[in-house]
Each structure stands twice: as C-alpha cells, then as structure tokens.
Amino acid sequence: MLLHAALSPHATAALLPWKLLAEEIFAVLHDASVQVPARIVLPLAGGGSLFCMPAADSQLAMTKLITSTPANAGTPRPTIQGDVVVFDVATGSRRLTLDGPTITARRTAAVSLLAAQRLAAQPAGPLLVIGAGAQGKAHVEAFVAGLGVREVHVASRSTHSAQALVEHARSLGCDARLVSDIRLAARHCPLIVTCTPANAVVLHEAPRADAFVCAVGAFTPQMVELAPSLCLDFAQRGRIVVDTEDAAHEAGDLLQAGLDVPRLPTLAQALNAGPAQASGAVLFKSCGWGGWDLAAARLACAQAMQVAT
C-alpha cells in the first residue's frame, strides 16, 4: 500500500491496536535482522530538540523525525511534532508516512503494556497515572485494553488536563477519579505510571510490595521523575528493568540515584527469564528506542495491507 500523504493521528492510531502492538514489540525483540543505530538528538535554540531515529529489519526501513519543544506545554501547540516514514527494503519505495506524535505515544505505552503483562504482580490494577498529557492518555488506553484495568487514579499539575483524562477513562468504562495526594494513591495502586515533563520529582515512594512502577518521562541524564531514594529502594527490595541498553546514558532517574545502570537487566533479558520472575516490586524505566518505532511501522504496514485487500 503506497500512501504519499502523511496519515492523520486518528488514521495512524487505527493501524496500531494495543494488544497487537505489544505483540509486535515482543517480536522485534526477538528478530535478529533488526538494526537500530543510536538516535541523533540535536539541541535547538530555546530548549527544544530535534530527534532522528532510524531502524530497519530485513523487509522494512524507517526513520522517525520529530521535534520536542517543552516550551509548547500549556499552549495550543503540541510539544512533540513530526513524522515516521516507512520504506520497503527490496525496492526502496516509500510505504507509509505516519503521524510521529501518535507513533511515539502508542509505542511507548505499548512497551509499558508488554512490561506490565509480563512483570507486574497485579496487572489489573488499580492504576495511578501521574501526568495527564498524551502519554498519560495513551497509557490509560493501553492498560485498559491490554490489562483489563477498571480503576484509574489521575494526578497532574494541571487540574484541567487531569479532569479531561478522568473523563476519558470513564468513557472507557473505568471508575476514574482525580487525586491530589500521590502518596496516598500510591499505597492503594499496585500499578503506577509516571509520564510528566520530568523536570522535578513527582513520586517519592511506592510502598506496596506488589508495586509495578513504569517511569517514561525522563530520557536524558538531567531529567527526573522519581526520587533517588525510591530508585535505591527498588534496587534493594525489588527489581529494576530498563527498556534497552541505551538507558545506561539516558535514564536520568537511575543515573541521579547513583545506580550502576549498565548492570541492570533490559526488557528483553527480563522477558527471556520467564514468567517465574513476575513477582514482587518492579521498576520499569523506559527511555525510548528506535526499535519500538520499527515495531509500530511493521504493524501499521501489515494492518494497512489488510485494509487495502
């Protein structure tokens, strides 16, 4: 299927059902033909960044080209903008052009979904989401569709955004509520997702022995969402899993806690360890990887071909 115009956010999302996307991410982790060079991050004037993230397997090649502009937060302009362009390896022709922010939101939440499916002691929740932006919304949708979560608690600096996410969760059939006391909510919820701009600590403790914390906001050494004491606590009494080896120079939460990040297991290693490991407190640190975008591109192309036929 050859589409020259970039698909809309809605059309892009329609090609990426949550459960199938999590399965495709798992498949990418076990595909020896996958190549993912280091992403290029170009700092821009004003505090923004330009990201170029290429990846390929034996059949498809893709690159995600997006800008991240934190200064757009609170304005009508999105903080993440750009496209994902997918090519056929055999012919070099363009297959699809997908909406970059939609790919980023959905593949990130689907990686969290896969980790929670395999590693969380209580995958059905209740769920506490800290941060009510695009990632907060995506994680609620992914966890509802993929884990059967039916109780959602939302915390955010923006009451308006938090209330909007609460209403969205209710539209998905959830008992959802706005919370102001994160510590109290963390005692109630075995599932916790932090997806903030990562410019300050938002989670100081996860007291439950069956806690599964998924931290996705921080992807540079300077960014942070989790208190260092919380990271150290997980290292001592539970498990810390990182999405890829790139976390060694990207996982700000863990680096600022002084942890030896290169020694931590990756998601692929944790999944290969088997379901017997899915017990106790787990911190999953997600920083992002071009392979996740490749998984989304593979699924989108497969789904688009089904629609075309």
From TrEMBL:
<dbReference type="InterPro" id="IPR023401">
    <property type="entry name" value="ODC_N"/>
</dbReference>
<protein>
    <submittedName>
        <fullName>Delta(1)-pyrroline-2-carboxylate reductase family protein</fullName>
    </submittedName>
</protein>
<dbReference type="InterPro" id="IPR003462">
    <property type="entry name" value="ODC_Mu_crystall"/>
</dbReference>
<dbReference type="InterPro" id="IPR036291">
    <property type="entry name" value="NAD(P)-bd_dom_sf"/>
</dbReference>
<dbReference type="Pfam" id="PF02423">
    <property type="entry name" value="OCD_Mu_crystall"/>
</dbReference>
